[in-house]
Specification:
Elements (H helix, E strand, L loop, with lengths): L1 E5 L3 E3 L3 H10 L4 E11 L3 E5 L5 E6 L2 E14 L14 H10 L4 E6 L4 E3 L3 H11 L3
Parallel strand pairs: 3-7
Antiparallel strand pairs: 1-6, 2-8, 3-6, 4-5
Length: 133
């Protein structure tokens, strides 16, 4: 009835039962597991009027977002929306479902619960953690 789909280059450390319960409770067709990510911009952000006059400056602003981890819980009913015998990107699949008003939820996890080992720096960090460094 429901199944997980993950990218092959991620490690998600959380209770999958919590994701499943969230998915069922909210009656989602798809639940995207998303990681809270915080980025600090190392520069001042200048807000400028149309004629080039400084309106506001924000030194080293922090941006918070929910990043798609590449882990999804799907209901089997969404499978009928995948075209047969052709490569079909998951991002396009999700966009298609959104355009059809199909319910897609987002389950947030902490930044520490997700590692994208497809990114070389993240892979090195994960190896370091496993080795206890």
């Amino acid at each position: 009835e429901n199944f997980f789909v993950t990218n092959c280059d991620i490690i998600v450390s959380c209770d999958y039962n919590n994701i499943f319960e969230f998915h069922k409770k909210n009656k989602n067709s798809i639940t995207i597991v998303a990681s809270i990510k915080k980025y600090i911009i190392p520069y001042g952000d200048c807000k400028v009027s149309k004629n080039g006059i400084l309106k506001k400056i924000n030194e080293k602003p922090e941006i918070n977002l929910l990043a798609n981890t590449g882990m999804y819980l799907m209901n089997k009913n969404v499978l009928k929306h995948i075209p047969k015998n052709e490569k079909y990107d998951l991002t396009n699949f999700i966009k298609k479902l959104l355009s059809k008003k199909i319910k897609i939820g987002v389950f947030p996890i902490s930044e520490e619960s997700w590692i994208d080992v497809g990114e070389w720096n993240e892979y090195k960090k994960s190896i370091s953690k496993l080795e206890g460094n």
